Amino acid sequence: MPQETTHGAVVPREMTVVRWLFNPFVRIGGGQALAIGLIVIVASGLAAAAAGVHFDGLLDFHPGYRVSLRVAIVEGLLNWSVISMLLVLVSLLVAPRTVRVVDIAGTQALARFPLLLAALACVPPAVRRANEEMTAALAEGRIVMPTVASSVSGLFGSVCVIWMVWLMWKAFSVSCNQRGGRAVAIFAAAVIAGEVATKFLLGRVLGGLAAAGVPGGS
């Protein structure tokens, strides 16, 4: 028979590939999820620096830039920490008895895994050059037809962002034992607030890094 986690989530006897991809949190949580998630965030930063990708907001994926490793990792850590803090706060308001900070932080870190795949897809030199040319053209106000490489990587990046949001929701639902319409509304509000907060904070942080001469800090 299926078992239940400490948060009441049903753990299936067998984890299929689909379950691992779209709701791994019934199996992985707490410190284990946090450790894996932090590795994912750092690896995503490495890939983003190699690919020229900015994660300059909670839900943002922008290829075609020069990005230093320091900036890429700062972006990933700040995005994760902001949404984790927001979800901890709202969970303390609606269900204080079920809140475990390590579960929320760990599962939210792990939920950012799709961005690693999105960044890796932009690492090949041909894809990076195409994205840089497209970004430069847009910055100059020129209208150019996107190449196959930039179109495919952009579409894949968008799919990965949607996948990440789904994982963030499942992570919140499992780690905080929240379900139903009210939980969806709370989660959506936290994500919107997180997007606004991360855009503001990253603007300040990256501006400071640029002033300090850090490449890709603007």
**Main sheet, how many strands, which sense, barrel?**
2 strands, antiparallel
Percent range of helical residues? 55-70%
Task: Count up the domains.
Answer: 1
Shape annotation: globular
Strand order of the largest sheet: 1-2
Strand content: under 5%
> Secondary-structure element order, as H and E?
EEHHEEHHHHHH
What this model shows, in words?
The structure is a single chain. With 218 residues, the chain is mainly alpha-helical. It has one domain. The chain is 68% helix and 4% strand. The strands form 2 sheets. A two-stranded antiparallel ribbon has the order 1-2. It has a two-stranded antiparallel sheet with strand order 3-4. The longest helix has 32 residues. It is globular, with a radius of gyration of 18 Å.
Question: Could you outline the blueprint of secondary structure elements for this entry?
Answer:
Elements: E1 3-4, E2 10-11, H1 17-22, H2 30-51, E3 53-54, E4 62-63, H3 69-94, H4 101-110, H5 113-120, H6 125-139, H7 148-176, H8 180-211
Antiparallel strand pairs: 1-2, 3-4
Helix pairs in contact: 2-3, 2-4, 2-5, 3-4, 3-8, 4-7, 5-7
